[in-house]
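Data availability (excerpt). The following record was deposited with the supplementary files.
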Amino acid sequence: MADPLSAAAEPTRRRILQLLAGGSRTVSEIAAEFPVTRSAISQHLLVLVDAGLLHAEKVGRERHYRVLPSGLRTLQAEIDRFWTDELDRLVADAQEMRNNP
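Predicted structure:
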C-alpha cells in the first residue's frame, strides 16, 4: 500500500482529490480536467486507490471514483504528526521577521 502523504504530495493527485471532494466522477470526467492522457490519469488514480484515499467502483463499462473519508482521516493524521510545535515556531518567527524587517 502506498503512503497517503506521498501519494497526495504529487500536484496532479492533489488536484484529483480536490475534484473528487465534490462527488464521484468517472475516469473520463476526471481526465477532461487535465492536459495529460486518460492513461496517465488512470495511473494517478491507481496510486490514490492503493494509498487508501479513493475507492473505485465499476458501473457498466466505466469506473467511478470517490474519496474515502477514512483515507482522508489517515492523511490528516500523517499531516498532524508532521506539523510539530517546531514548525509552529518557525512560522511565527518568519511572520515576525516579515513584520519587523
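Summary of structural features: The first helix runs from residue 4 to 9.
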